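Following up on my earlier message about UFG. Here are the inputs again, as you asked, copied directly from the submission form:
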Amino acid sequence: MRVLLTGGAGYIGSHTALVLLEHGHEVVVLDDFSNSSLEAVRRVEELSGKSVPVVEADLADRAASERALEDIEFDSVIHLAGLKSVGESVAQPTRYYRVNIDATLVLLDVLRERGITNFVFSSSATVYGVPQSVPIDEQHPVGDGITNPYGRSKFIIEEIIRDTQSAWPELGATLLRYFNPVGAHTSGRIGEDPSGIPNNLMPFIAQVAVGKRERLSVFGDTYATPDGTGVRDYIHVMDLAEGHVAALEHNRPGIAVYNLGSGTGSSVLEVVREFERASGQPVPFVIEAPRAGDVGEVVADPTLANTTLDWRTTRSLADACRDSWNWQSSNPEGYAG
Ligand code: UFG
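Thanks, got it. Here's what our run produced:
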């Protein structure tokens, strides 16, 4: 396939591009580089030995995107482009809704105009809101109890895609609900390069281990979990990337929804310990108050993806810590270094 990969220069995008190329697909990256780097695409080219055309465009800008895509050939789309900071979305809700929703509307119109029916969307476990029970399968209710505009934009986009598919039955749309992506490619050449202070646990820990930050704040230790700290389903980004390729290759007319997670939960303190082991560096931490909107435990039931897509995670949290450390220690300043 010739895949248009929106957000292809970002963290998940760069790893997905690499796995697509390794599976014999061609990739065209579309990105506005607002939170990503051309260097990531160059390194994907270096790792794969293949060239990756890049279209620089803000998808939310309809006229500019239509112009930019005019001469670009593709037969399928993986749509990852979007803003993704939970905290920022609380402070800037209109920006989050506009950017994330407009980009998807423009893209869906382009697909329909061109008759491209193979579409995979990057959604999030955040659409489940506060879990009623764990592990969470795809039948779990969505939409209620989402605590931030970022998460709600993902839920709204899922609904928009469903409505679009109803009006256009040939469309095959797969919604991938990610749990917590972590880790990096084993080469240490591509990885997560957050701008500013990392919001997410593992990149923050990595920066503490490398000496860029003094200590980790652990947000709460009185949850109803074995050690009281928050439990999440961490999925290695290469497993996640392989999940995208499996979903794309399996896509058919209609709507399909899959959780992409490992099915195993790990607490904040377990991640700290695993990272210390992998890096050989201490990760000092202090316990602080719970973060607004956080929940105790979010773990996937990935059975549907395991059985239908013949996909499952093969990499452990220890692997993710090792790879994250390799990336962080060989690129302490990220792609800018
Ligand atoms: N945590 C800390 N200290 C930190 C950062 C995080 O203790 O500095 C804790 C959190 O409280 C939570 C766990 O580490 O218990 C994981 O937090 P992350 O911020 O890494 O991830 P979240 O589970 O909060 O959020 C992730 C994605 C969101 C997505 C959500 C869906 O980052 O984009 O999962 O469940 F919406």
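One observation from looking it over: The pocket of UFG is lined by residues 84, 86, 124-126, 151, 180, 199-201, 204, 216-219, 230, 232, 268, 291, 294, 298 (CB under 6 Å). Hope that helps, and feel free to reply on this thread.
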